[in-house]
Recover the amino acids of this structure.
């Protein structure tokens, strides 16, 4: 705390207060959208048009521009969920609790996308829609973990209590994810030859890699945008009797 | 020392309660046996087929039986308020929770070990793998109780916690299923299984140390 | 490269465009649902303010 400049501390203090946060997101939202659109535009143009076809997989490899960033996001968001859940648990910061639970549906969506596109990529490559490949399997289990978080939050009526439960579950999940991941990988190498995973790693050229990084960045910005939208409705609902929400409603009349 | 007495007292109390209510012991056990008998009826009784999938069947059934028994872990204590007393006591809640989990495993996990050889014979498992099956059950079922305790402590206050409990707990059971099932399978073909057993031991150690913390925290949350 | 060639993706058009399409729909839904919920929230809150009973 002593090493952090005062202005930064003040910024976080203000952000932890719902009305300030709400006003702040109003201001940054257009910028986030502009950056997101630019990144996605360049990423897709580079990935779908400029990048050459893969010599082994033809044009089907272009699915990686959404598959791989989604898979990265699915893990990243789980980490965010656990960390903000822990912050909410330890320091009782309401906004951190809301970040944790608002991340869950977005993370689940990315996990679903990673699975779906993985399956669509697998069909022309492996000849079947589903292969019990290590990555697909761990991604499937990750989806169940997300659904567990969402289901648990929905099942508990008191949302303050539900946030705590979700934080505990997310932390337990974070400890387990590496164990699950390695166990699935180990299981996979025993039951299947390494031929399947070979296709997963295309020899990546700069013209293919650059759009991939752009898309990964664009997905990060998408996450911010979607997260802010979810946080806003969650804040409004939880604080529906607070003065600032009533003022907001009056503004709209 | 007082903590140790409290620890033992909770185990004794829970065992005594279980002896008085025998259905708590019998239900998961019957479920375990029933599920295993359903498999040959469902897929046909070809001996090689059954032999090939026996480790998987036994372990998946053990997983389901463990999950089914979880509800009884904190349910009655939650309903009659003694859970609150345990959490209010001056001793660390995580240690007392560990005592409850151990008692629960003695009542629901240990009986599985006793009937498992019988079921292994029914499924035509090779005799050399029965020892390994018992060892994996001995190491694996406590992990199931420990991880399950986290899930059940999160849902104990809910009216319909059953469905959500399976969603919370089963994905976390995956590593145990993989290593234990594989060890039994390998043992059947006469291969060494030291690696799998060592991993199971480390998973058990890890969950004994780590699982009581979130369980205690979640119980405190559920009780309030 | 003609548009037809681009859309066919060297014969993999179906797989590539379905993935992109589904991704687009899922990501869009994630933005639209909270915005709709917010609109609904304000509509309800306004009604409640006009006649609190």
């Amino acid at each position: 705390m002593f090493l952090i400049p005062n202005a930064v501390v003040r910024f976080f203090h203000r952000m932890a207060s719902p009305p300030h946060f709400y006003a702040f997101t109003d201001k940054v939202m257009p910028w986030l959208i502009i950056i997101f659109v630019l990144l996605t535009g360049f990423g897709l143009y580079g990935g779908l048009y400029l990048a050459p076809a893969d010599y082994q997989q033809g044009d089907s490899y272009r699915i990686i521009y959404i598959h791989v960033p989604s898979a990265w996001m699915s893990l990243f968001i789980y980490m965010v969920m656990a960390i903000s859940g822990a912050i909410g648990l330890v320091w009782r910061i309401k906004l951190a609790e809301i970040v944790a639970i608002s991340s869950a549906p977005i993370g689940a969506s990315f996990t679903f996308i990673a699975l779906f596109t993985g399956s669509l990529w697998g069909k022309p490559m492996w000849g079947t829609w589903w292969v019990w490949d290590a990555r697909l399997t761990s991604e499937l289990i990750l989806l169940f973990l997300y659904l567990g978080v969402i289901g648990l939050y929905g099942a508990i009526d008191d949302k303050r209590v539900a946030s705590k439960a979700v934080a505990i579950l997310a932390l337990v999940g974070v400890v387990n994810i590496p164990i699950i991941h390695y166990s699935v990988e180990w299981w996979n190498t025993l039951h299947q030859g390494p031929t399947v995973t070979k296709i997963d790693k295309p020899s990546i050229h700069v013209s293919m890699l650059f759009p991939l990084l752009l898309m990964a960045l664009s997905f990060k910005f998408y996450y911010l945008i979607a997260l802010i939208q979810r946080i806003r409705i969650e804040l409004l609902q939880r604080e529906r009797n607070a003065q600032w929400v009533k003022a907001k409603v009056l503004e709209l009349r | 020392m007082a903590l140790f007495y409290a620890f033992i007292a909770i185990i004794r109390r829970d065992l005594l309660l279980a002896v008085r209510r025998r259905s708590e012991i019998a239900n998961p056990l019957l479920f375990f046996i029933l599920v295993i008998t359903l498999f040959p009826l469902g897929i046909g009784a070809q001996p090689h087929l059954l032999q090939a999938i026996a480790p998987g069947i036994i372990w998946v059934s053990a997983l389901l039986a463990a999950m089914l028994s979880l509800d009884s872990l904190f349910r009655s204590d939650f309903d009659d308020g003694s859970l609150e007393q345990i959490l209010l006591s001056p001793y660390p809640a995580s240690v007392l929770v560990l005592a409850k989990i151990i008692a629960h495993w003695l009542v629901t996990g240990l009986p599985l070990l006793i009937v498992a050889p019988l079921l292994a014979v029914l499924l035509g498992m090779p005799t050399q793998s029965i020892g390994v099956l018992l060892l994996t059950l001995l190491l694996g079922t406590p992990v199931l109780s420990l991880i399950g305790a986290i899930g059940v402590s999160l849902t104990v206050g809910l009216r319909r916690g059953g469905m959500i409990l399976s969603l919370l707990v089963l994905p976390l059971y995956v590593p145990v299923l993989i290593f234990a099932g594989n060890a039994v399978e390998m043992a059947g073909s006469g291969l060494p299984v030291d690696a799998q057993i060592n991993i199971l031991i480390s998973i058990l150690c890890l969950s004994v140390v780590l699982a009581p913390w979130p369980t205690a925290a979640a119980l405190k949350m559920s009780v309030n | 490269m003609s548009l037809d060639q681009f859309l066919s993706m060297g014969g993999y058009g179906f797989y590539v465009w379905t993935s992109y399409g589904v991704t687009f729909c899922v990501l869009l839904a994630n933005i639209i649902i909270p915005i709709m919920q917010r609109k609904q929230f304000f509509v309800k809150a306004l009604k409640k303010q006009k006649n609190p009973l």
